[in-house]
């Protein structure tokens, strides 16, 4: 063989070997990326976060205390995991207030680093929002107050320090904030907290010895993906239920994982609420998909003595097969087992009419804006705390078009408002996106059109956030800021984030 040909042959052999090795490696990565906990044995009784005690001041203000603290929790017998929590070792109590009530939360930070508490889904003044501009230093406290002025809903609270939100939530700082109103109080819905009305805070987790392992898997561009799930901080949880109808307030409090909830026997359930409150009617469904930060209230019918397993199923609308596999779209999790007692208390039928979402329909929109989502930033700009990106006029409604531009799974959360999803890829949205929403999934290839109304109050100097709620992305800069101003007003100057040192 002439020397040149010999070199060429050797090179092609090397190329084929390298190709096979790379292909084999990719195949191994691909098959290794899929996670399933199907068939889990449910061995621990579901913890239900306590309702937070409150006091009512003479002016009618309902006052709560929330203390951010470090602790340890025994998720598994004999293994004490270092954690953070509100008023306890892990997660936080459920706050509950009525529409029209004045509320105040006395937030104390006993951690060794600064954090914030953001009221996710709440309509409130920007200064009270708990975003990156309302930092609470170690040892300091903060006392936001506002009047609840929105329909009954399942909201939640969690830290929002710029660049560190993922870590703070993963360590356990999250809790629910339930709102009631006159209308919801009269509806014959399951409403006994912890009995037939259950908070279901779903998080994925991986342990490394006693510690949480927050490492991101190779190829997982969406962020941290755990290898198992817990509900309200309980691994492999079961709950004994004694009523025919059980209401589950599902909250995806995971930092990156998207769930598609249903039951292992594919039974149908009724969707009764979305992020911002009750839907107009119950909608029969067998799956409801929730990306990080989203909520859904569902009601499931139980038969005496049976067991029903809530599962998160593999998902189809995650972008391409690569993104789907490496970002958890092919994963399966057995999340919670409901164990029905042998005799069940009868529940009234669900009412045909539920909530009255207060949402713009786009017809009175005064302005359209576009938001292109990429990991590097929104509309090509990484978050800057001293830059106001958008200025909206108090009392007006707008249409925002949000497009996934890089194929990585994202979602879009807007502070202060509940919006209507007008269109998903030019079509009418599915039932779970027809109610009041503050967060919407925007996987690869998707474009959503939203109608939002900004009712204020105006504050040209204090921005609200809009961002991807996959916290690894948010921390990396997928966030922007908007201010609400009076008509003809201009954005002011953002003051540098400072820590509150007392109240
Ligand atoms: Cu994202």
TrEMBL record:
A Pfam entry, by short name: Cu-oxidase_2
Keywords: Metal-binding, Oxidoreductase
Residue ranges of every copy of the Plastocyanin-like domain listed in the record: 69-183, 223-303, 374-486
Domain of life assignment: Bacteria
InterPro entries in alphabetical order: Cu-oxidase-like_N, Cu-oxidase_2nd, Cu-oxidase_C, Cu-oxidase_fam, Cu_oxidase_Cu_BS, Cupredoxin
CDD domains, per database record: CuRO_1_CueO_FtsP, CuRO_2_CueO_FtsP, CuRO_3_CueO_FtsP
Family: Belongs to the multicopper oxidase family.
Annotated protein name in UniProt: Multicopper oxidase domain-containing protein
Organism whose genome encodes this protein: Streptomyces xantholiticus
